Automatic annotation (TrEMBL):
Location(s) in or outside the cell: Mitochondrion inner membrane
Record membrane topology: Multi-pass membrane protein
Keyword annotations: Membrane, Mitochondrion, Mitochondrion inner membrane, Transmembrane, Transmembrane helix, Transport
GO biological process, one term: pyruvate import into mitochondria
GO CC, alphabetical: mitochondrial inner membrane
Function of the protein: Mediates the uptake of pyruvate into mitochondria.
Entry's transmembrane regions: 50-70
Protein name: Mitochondrial pyruvate carrier
Pfam families referenced in this protein's UniProt entry, alphabetically: MPC
Native organism: Neurospora tetraspora
Family: Belongs to the mitochondrial pyruvate carrier (MPC) (TC 2.A.105) family.
Coiled-coil residue windows: none
Lineage: Eukaryota, Fungi, Dikarya, Ascomycota, Pezizomycotina
Amino acid sequence: MAAVVKALNAKIRSNPVANYLCSTHFWGPASNFGIPVAAVLDTQKSPELISGQMTGALTIYAFVFMRYALAVTPRNYLLFGCHFVNAGAQLTQGYRYLDWHYWGGKDKAVEKALTAPVAAAAVAK
């Protein structure tokens, strides 16, 4: 049985594409893509749910690992792409957080909520 497994492994490793698909160079970033997918989906949620500290930490994390992906040999462009998407999503979330809490986004939302019934009543008349 061990000889069969060894022969199968040698067959897989002889093909460059199959070798790459069976490596951590592929599966690490592929499994890590859950983070940027979640971050992109979170951009559709209310900005009052955003944690500023977590967004800052994830932004730094994304930039550090973008650098790491290019520093390893061989360069891991899939890992770079994963963290590039994550950095973009986290920067978007950071902007939304700052807009909501510090640049008047919350006040605009409250004002809009208060004036919406008045505008609806005016249209109904």
